[in-house]
Amino acid sequence: MTRDSTAAFAAFYRAEHGRLLRYFRTRVGRDEAPDLVQETFARLLRSGAFERMDNPQAYLTRSARNLLIDRARQQQQSQALIFPFDEGCDAPVYPEQTWRIEEADLRRAYGRALRAMSRRTRRVFMMHRMRRMTYMEIAKQLGIGDKGVQHHVSLALARIRRALAGWSVAG
């Protein structure tokens, strides 16, 4: 900056300081207004365009308005609440009590389905599923054919499927 431009800027500063101070006081209050006035003039000086401007008052007013917008954005960002996610503390807790209740309900429905089967179908199914016996072993023990074992197991599975049709696995 030359000596003439420094003198011109100083004169401009003295002429516009009061107007800009009133502008900021009405918008942010008495305490913060002087700092914002200084920042606005500093922006104008840093731009290096003061000497080439046709209307520096309009530039100053626009710069003051932009400074208020920037300040509002910063305040809005600083007020945002950020809660860090901690895997150990914030991991979802599954409803174990609900699962136990559902398990008990499921077991009751399963038991009702078993009790509703004929005695032979229930016996074949239990031998196959609980004792882990093969169809051949069941057929030998009960004196029926493999096809008979398959028939009883498929009947039992169909009945259980119907009884538990409304259930789904939670999780």
From TrEMBL:
InterPro entries from the UniProt entry: RNA_pol_sigma-70-like, RNA_pol_sigma-70_dom, RNA_pol_sigma70_r2, RNA_pol_sigma70_r4_t2, RNA_pol_sigma_r2, RNA_pol_sigma_r3/r4-like, WH-like_DNA-bd_sf
Keywords for the protein's UniProt record, in alphabetical order: Sigma factor, Transcription, Transcription regulation
Domain (RNA polymerase sigma factor 70 region 4 type) ranges: 108-160
SUPFAM superfamilies given in the database record: Sigma2 domain of RNA polymerase sigma factors, Sigma3 and sigma4 domains of RNA polymerase sigma factors
Domain RNA polymerase sigma-70 region residue range list: 12-76
Cited Pfam families: Sigma70_r2, Sigma70_r4_2
MF (Gene Ontology): DNA binding; sigma factor activity
Biological process, per Gene Ontology: DNA-templated transcription initiation
The family this protein is said to belong to: Belongs to the sigma-70 factor family. ECF subfamily.
Name of the protein described by the UniProt record: RNA polymerase sigma factor
UniProt organism field: Sphingosinicella microcystinivorans
Gene: fecI
